[in-house]
Specification:
Elements lengths: L3 H5 L9 E2 L6 E2 L3 E2 H4 L17 E2 L1 H7 L2 E5 L4 E5 L5 E4 L4 E4 L4 H9 L7 E4 L19 E6 L2 E6 H18 L9 H11 L3 H9 L3 H9 L3 H7 L9
Parallel strand pairs: 5-8, 9-10
Antiparallel strand pairs: 1-2, 3-4, 5-6, 7-8, 7-9, 10-11
Helix pairs in contact: 5-7, 5-8, 5-9
Length: about 230
């Protein structure tokens, strides 16, 4: 069975007598750890086969600079893979940035035919592709958000995004990770109730909520969908 980096590289059948240092996939001896793993590498605790002396062609592909195609069709040359989010199958590798949240959301709600992989970056500082996993189902499937694997149920994700939009409209997107007393005051001033505020605060630490927050539009877009409730003094 192939690993996510091998899927990313379009490898359909991995062969060899070794296992990849990074992803643990079957590989040959073409790519040596001495060439592709720096002495300064400090994440040996997260690699799959730390004792291996070889890495697979899939992981080589994940680390190499490449020409990329974004979800909107834009092409960019010589880009670092770690700077981008990725949606990939064994025939396509589509890159994305936070400017493509609508497109990413649409894909999560209508994913490609398995096998596929989805990796979403927040910092651009970490190599994530070699840590990612393959989705073998379109119903409940793994998505990597930075270095966290989150299981996605499409109906649940859509519900969480809907709640997030309501709250974002009132208090702004960054505030949904905090949900403090001053945010509650601002929310009440906007809607005249605390219904969705309380619901989000109760569930804000759930992995699926973190994904929904990442995918949510900015405050202005959410306000267009959920305008302030104007109240009159009686």
């Amino acid at each position: 069975m192939i690993t996510a980096p091998q899927l990313f590289a379009g490898i359909k059948n991995a062969t060899g007598s070794e296992h990849c240092f990074y992803c643990g996939g079957i590989c040959g001896e073409e790519h040596s750890v001495k060439k592709y793993v720096k002495d300064t590498f400090t994440n040996r605790d997260i690699v799959r086969r730390p004792g291996s002396q070889f890495i697979c062609g899939g992981c080589v592909s994940c680390f190499e600079d490449r020409d990329i195609t974004l979800l909107n069709g834009e092409k960019r040359k010589d880009q670092w893979t770690r700077l981008y989010s990725w949606i990939f199958t064994n025939t396509t590798q589509m890159a994305a940035t936070k400017a493509h949240l609508k497109e990413i959301t649409a894909i999560l709600l209508t994913p490609p035919e398995p096998p596929f992989g989805i990796v979403l970056v927040t910092s651009g500082q970490k190599q994530l592709l070699f840590r990612s996993v393959i989705a073998w189902s379109k119903d409940n499937f793994p998505v990597m958000l930075e270095d966290e694997i989150i299981t996605v149920n499409k109906k649940e994700l859509l519900e969480k995004i809907s709640i997030a939009k309501i709250v974002v409209a009132a208090i702004g997107k960054p505030s949904l990770a905090e949900m403090e007393r001053n945010h509650a005051i601002r929310y009440f001033d906007y809607y005249g109730n605390l219904e969705s505020f309380g619901l989000w605060k109760k569930e804000m630490h759930n992995p699926i909520n973190r994904l929904a927050l990442y995918l949510s539009p900015n405050q202005k877009e959410c306000q267009n969908e959920h305008p302030r409730i104007e109240r009159t003094n009686s």
